[in-house]
Amino acid sequence: MCVLNGRIDVQKDNFTYISGRGKSVVDYICVPHDVLEQLVSFEVITTCSIVEQSNLFSLLGERSKVPDHSVLTTEFKTNCTYSTKSQVPQECVENKRYKLKSIPNDLFASDLSKIALQSIITQIERTRKTQTHIDEIYSKLCDIIIDEMNPTF
């Protein structure tokens, strides 16, 4: 294994942790030596620069602050081929946004939603299975929340 940080372009290499207490490199991408030939790029992008370049300041709350860890990106050449004619499922294209600051007080007030939530809570309390099972429970919880929010938001 080898570390990609500092290997490609010094201009795109940066500290991965930047705070008021100082700067350091604490996040790394490690890959097997035999894939270095396919490495195209490696870049450390500070979250502050992402916020500035994308003008995301309005999305930060009054008490929020920009994360102190950077984003590490890398690109590799591959021998894979794919078709550009494939279509993205409609459910992936449409991302509905909810106004979470205006959640009504009667959200989850119906008996059906209370039963569904209680069922999820019971499943969580009793689960001792694999991560896949936990992911399934989480997915059900998300479905319940979205079903409840769709008619009211």
UniProtKB/TrEMBL annotation:
This is HMGCR. Keywords: Oxidoreductase. It comes from Mytilus edulis. The keyword Oxidoreductase applies. GO terms for molecular function: hydroxymethylglutaryl-CoA reductase (NADPH) activity. Its EC number is 1.1.1.34. It is an enzyme of class 1 (oxidoreductase).
